[in-house]
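Design review, sub-item: ligand-bound model
Attendees: FS, YL, KQ
YL presented the inputs for the uridine-5'-diphosphate-xylopyranose complex:
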Amino acid sequence: MDIKEKLQEMEERIIKLEMNVPKTFPPVKPLGYKDKKRILVSGGAGFVGSHLVDRLMMDGHSVTVVDNFFTGSRKNIEQWIGHENFEIINHDIINPLFIEVDQIYHLASPASPPHYMLNPIKTLKTNILGTINMLGLAKRVKARFLISSTSELYGDPEIHPQSEDYWGNVNPIGPRACYDEGKRAAEAICYAYVRKENIEVRVARIFNTYGPRMHINDGRVVSNFIIQAIENLPITIYGSGKQTRSFQYVSDLVEGLVALMNGNYSLPVNLGNPDEYTIEKFATLIKEFVGSSSPIVFKEGLEDDPKQRKPDITRAKNYLNWSPKVSLQDGLQKTVNYFKKEIQMSKTGLRS
Ligand SMILES: O=c1ccn([C@@H]2O[C@H](COP(=O)(O)OP(=O)(O)O[C@H]3OC[C@@H](O)[C@H](O)[C@H]3O)[C@@H](O)[C@H]2O)c(=O)[nH]1
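KQ shared the predicted structure:
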């Protein structure tokens, strides 16, 4: 959509608002009261959270989003504002929350390294106090609880690929510790609640994920490289570029989260795409994909940057019958289209 079309769309929306024409929502499945669940998504205005909210809403459930909008954004969920099945609470989960729900997807936490390192104490509080508060809620209302954990829990892994029974290699006092150790503590807290309080817990260890709705200032490799390539700016590789990552498209992750929540498996499960690339190869691939003239440049490496990462997804295959479906080609196409629009909008001042 170019800028003229976008302006026209906005004008039409203003006219409809002025005329009090009811907003049209994406289609929602009708669900009987027995199947309809009340679902809380913490961090539901974020990149992953908002895609999950779309899925749960379209499945016909009642969804409550709780978000403090630190990295989340209202525009990610604006399509549901005003829907009778949808509610949004502006709240920081480091404080307790009292509502009635059947399921809790606990996704609230900054996830991009520059964001979580910006305020490490807040990252620790969110993952530790926030998880305790969300589990307290799950205990009070007997809700099933899913937490978004991370592949960062494996630190700089000495085994490859990483399976869930690997305990990890994390620097407990390094700059990434606020997130890595925060998530490790969060998992420990979950299983303490399982042992002592009989809570039904699901733990998703999420590997690198990309897709539309990543923030333009997200700072992770996929968004950085795509934006740099679109703008013909230098593509910045941190370190040698020999480090590896494996990238999953966001809709695959959402499928995995829903399957995990509704299945019977209660130990941690890796959710990621085993399609592995060196960062150097990935830079070339993005440059060619976008058709960019960007030079590829090497910058200083990051402290404690994991050298290799690839999920072993045997558990997810066996227990959830889940495996990623979206190819890098298809996922990148959607993501590049999204960023082209976002860049255009930010240049016209319509988006920050
Ligand atoms: O511009 C950039 C950005 C990043 N990178 C490199 O690309 C690799 C991936 O970096 P990202 O910041 O995208 O993500 P990381 O793998 O370090 O961390 C991620 O891990 C999994 C999730 O839990 C989180 O989304 C995030 O913490 C790193 O080696 C990083 O140094 C670049 O070379 N250039």
